[in-house]
Amino acid sequence: MMKKIVLTGAQGRLGQELRAPLAEMCHALLSTDIKEAPKDLAPNESYVQADLAQMDQVEALIQGAEMVVHFGAIPDEAPFEELLGPNYIGAYTVWEAARRHGVRRIVYASSIHAVGLEPTAEGPALTNRHRPDTFYGLSKCFAEDMARMYWEKTGLEAVCLRIMSCTPEPENTRALGTWLSYGDLVRLVRAAVTTPTTGFALAWGVSANDRAPVTNAEAAFLGYRPQDNAEDWAEKFLAAAKTPDPSDLAQMRLGGPFARVPLGESGVEAIRKMTAGD
């Protein structure tokens, strides 16, 4: 069991799913977010409200940690200026503070949007070039490249998880391929934390979907074995599906609606409208 794990973004939707499982894996879990503390802390969990863009605050969090699970960021497309602090500078402060304090590994919530303009039908390998669909996706490219650089220059390990569509259940036709269940999210993060050595690694955050457009064959050494499959919802979504439009980037690129929205405008809202049939 590890001595200390730090979880950033602990009050985000996915961070809240990870707090209890991570608390079971260490003697001390330090959860942090820019939001106020939750009321359901585990017995071995402490909470610090902090701004990831402030190096002094991040250093105080990370001191003594063996591993950082970095999920803190704005999880949507927005103007670059809004993303700069939490998504770009926040990633740098986490990696640099981790280097200074001898952290062994960072498990990072990257995103499909780092390659969101890749055609869905091509099934890109993990090692494909970056092809971001938004400023948000660009921030994930920045952090992935920084993670590789810190590994090669300083020996700080990193596992970058390219999370796809992580929701309790699939929400639309696209999610028949891209869905990541909450249970499989926990399995993926647990694998990334417990694998003895990783170096720099990439893995897709996707469940065992029959229609998944990508494969984790190159990351098999992590031992991630997803158990959920969006195909259980296929009949429901396909029966209500509209006529496909091959000229629509939202249907033809891995990033879905993020591939179509103008730079700086919410991709999450575009997904909501797509799901609602607006």
What would you note in describing this structure?
It is a single chain. By secondary structure, the protein is an alpha/beta fold. The protein has one domain: NAD(P)-binding Rossmann-like Domain (Rossmann fold), CATH 3.40.50.720. The chain contains 9 helices and 9 strands. The protein has a 7-stranded parallel sheet with strand order 3-2-1-4-5-6-9, with helices on both faces. A two-stranded parallel ribbon has the order 7-8.
Summary keywords:
278 residues, alpha/beta, Rossmann fold, seven-stranded parallel beta sheet, two-stranded parallel sheet, 17% strand, globular
Helices and strands in order, then pairings?
Layout: E1 2-8, H1 13-23, E2 26-33, E3 45-49, H2 55-62, E4 67-70, H3 80-100, E5 105-111, H4 135-154, E6 157-163, E7 165-166, H5 175-178, E8 179-180, H6 182-194, E9 200-205, H7 234-240, H8 249-252, H9 267-276
Parallel strand pairs: 1-2, 1-4, 2-3, 4-5, 5-6, 6-9, 7-8
Helix pairs in contact: 1-6, 2-3, 3-4
Keywords: NAD, Oxidoreductase
Pfam families: Epimerase
Organism: Pseudoroseicyclus aestuarii
Gyration radius (Cα, Å) is 18 Å
Count of β-strands: 9
Order of helices and strands: EHEEHEHEHEEHEHEHHH
Gross morphology is: globular
Give the biggest sheet. Answer: 7 strands, parallel
- CATH class value: Alpha Beta
**Biggest sheet: strand arrangement:** 3-2-1-4-5-6-9
Distance between the termini: 48 Å
